[in-house]
Amino acid sequence: MSSIFSQIIAGEIPCYKIYEDPKTIAILTIRPHTKGHTLVIPKVEVDHWDDVPPEFFGHMWQTAQFVAKMLKEKLHPARVGIMVAGFEVPHAHIHLIPINEMEDLSIGKAYDATQEELKEVHTIITS
Fold first, then answer.
1. How far is residue 15's CA from residue 22's CA, in Å, rounded to a whole number?
2. pLDDT, tens digit (0-9, with 9 covering 90-100), for 39-75
3. 113/119 Cα distance (integer angstroms)
4. CATH of the domain at 30
5. Domains held by the chain: number
6. Residues 6+ apart with CB under 8 A from 86
7. Which site among 70, 80, 112, 113 is 20 to 30 Å from 106 CA-CA?
């Protein structure tokens, strides 16, 4: 069975897409730590980040850097934190989290975002 991310990439499940190219997609997470919490996902289904094929691995990090700059420009956080955990979905991904303090990276900060909030943040970032 394909991961939920593979289903999103295939267009089978809707998402709030921030960026997409032939090798990666960046989407808003439905369980953000802060507004603008974005996932950068390679378009190859691999469970562990350290198993991502080289032709996707470097590009995934270039996308993360590009999207982080978008988040900084549009949302004005002090920093954009990065987290790679891999427990939530068995498909490698990078968390980009707009932060103003270290506590913003805490797993306990995650909450269920409303569709209205996701739509609002998506509009801010992509406009």
1. 17
2. 999 999 999 999 999 999 999 999 999 999 999 999 9
3. 10
4. 3.30.428.10
5. 1
6. 47, 48, 49, 92, 93
7. 70
